[in-house]
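Table S7 (text form). Paired inputs.
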Amino acid sequence: MSTLQTINFKDSKAAINKPEFYIPVVLDINAILKSWQLSIFSFEWINKDASIKDISALKEADQEKRKAIEAALTNNEPLEKPILGIGIQDNVEIGSGKAVICTLAAHGVKTIPAHIPKSNESDFKDLIADEAQK
């Protein structure tokens, strides 16, 4: 499987349209999933222990999203960087890109570039990827 160095990413359209609002970061995928498991939306993609569901356990629409990301990886097409924020319960919420994060996690990728609101920068300090993992 690809490493972060061989996966192509492009900036999110939302982040491009509001550069004053978002900052780019590289995050630890396992830390994202551990925090996101508290979200009411996480059950669609991850198990209670924050592990990624098998593709056959996903809804049909989510299976298609995962297959599209896997095809993009195979064809070396750029993936859009996810946008993350902090939810009401002080956990990670994935505004866009959950299929990207979960597909890469399923393939053992450890880190991912993403966009977060500047106002949440301090909330993400424990999720920033260790330089050695990149």
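Next pair, protein 2 of 2.
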Amino acid sequence: MYDYVPEPDLSQLRVIFNRARHDAGLTYDQLAARSGLSRQTLINLSQGRHYGDLQTWLRLSATFEVGLDDLLSPVWPDEER
């Protein structure tokens, strides 16, 4: 297995969020209404000012209809996947 726990690249969260939102074709207002997250939280995620917490990403994965593991897999370095 691993001799160490790899560090996730949290800067990828902004990229993941923006890609998923654009792929879903949702505005911030539409995504806020569907996910129950505030528009400001979504904008902060989009701009990398906030990483969100587990509840945030669980809501987003449900809204985007994708598993949490699949949604967040890009935070792990390629050699660790």
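The helical segments are 12-24, 28-35, 39-46, 54-63, 68-72.
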